[in-house]
Amino acid sequence: MKFNAKKALRVVAVASVAALATTAVSTGAHAAPKKTFNIWWYEKGTAMATTWNDALTEFKKAHPDVQVNFQLKTWAQLQNAGNALLSSSSAPDLSEWNKGNATAGSASQANLLTDLTPYAAKYKWDKVLVPSVKLYGQYTNGIMGAGKLYGVPSYGEYVSWFYNKDMFAKYGVAVPTTFAQLEAALAKFQAAGVPPIALAGKDYLIVHLAYGLVASQASLQWVRDFQAFAHPVNFSGPEWTFAAKTISDWNKAGYFEPNVSGVDAATAVADFQKGTYPLLFGGTWLDQDMQAKATSFKWGKFANPGKLSVGSAGNLLVIPAKSKQKDLAAEFINMVLSTKYQNELAKLGGLPIAADPKYVATVKDPVALLTNTVFSSIVKKQGLAMYPDWPVNGYYNNLLAAGTQLLSDNDVAAYEKSTGDFYAANKP
Q: Model pTM?
């Protein structure tokens, strides 16, 4: 048979095109674009971070068709630019978010957060989120405490004193249970040439210390007045004046290092962990870091003496209004609230809101036992006073600036005026 070269070439060309087309179709079938799920949080080195990472690993396995993009943020990023981030094209599908009127409340009022009420009904979250916990995620006209559910807390937290047991023993100082005993302990350390308190004057530690002293003198009604505007708050009253005067007195007595107004939180925490200072007023989010780094001495915790303590349910998991994967985001929240991960949080030393009590009773980790014991003592007396920056938008920056200035000039009246005027000018 005579070979027809042109015909053969045409056949090869057609076959090649067909093969390429088949390959393209086949490749397209196997490489369909994945769904993208963007998730943010700022937990780092905490029991929550470990627990959420483990939940995210399980989530990825359950959704091989989803491209999960995780970004570690910082508390300050979301505190300072929260609403701008939520309204931008880069808003995530799920994020940890700061609770309170000035943050989650402001975002909900600006329609930047998804109402989670339907998901709460679907997953039966009301069995997990008891009213005293749920209220931190509920907002009406930007005010926390009631209304639609815009965020879900999954843990508790509080601020207390970390103390160096070895230094307390060396200088014969007993763990104080009253404010008078606390001041006697500070004076005893100072007399021995040991500045007693590691403090960050240019960071959140001064904000917490000031409000911790306010809370020590406050009633639950005062907290309701301050947080929810039930009644006017007097910033020259006994609560706020006590706090400002105490910080000024402690500063004059040399209980902080001389340049305390310029110290940041990372430095203050590291100084305590090195054994330089016997006391640090800090939150439960520092527990795991303490366990890892404060290894040259024995340390413990005790609640700030007085009526109330800084603390609440933890920060929220929210679904931004611009989320493209709201159902996936709600599914992840449900995983975090599950008994499996709530139990893991307890095991790691966190403060779960829905762990199995029988399981928690078996936890042997000393840090977990310590932090839960202090928390139980606070909760038992209904002693959680929330956080000071929640009531009005931008208040954290005002409280920080006023606290830093107080450490620089010891002007109690100026501190009261600055914090009081800002609150009055910005409350709804």
A: 0.77
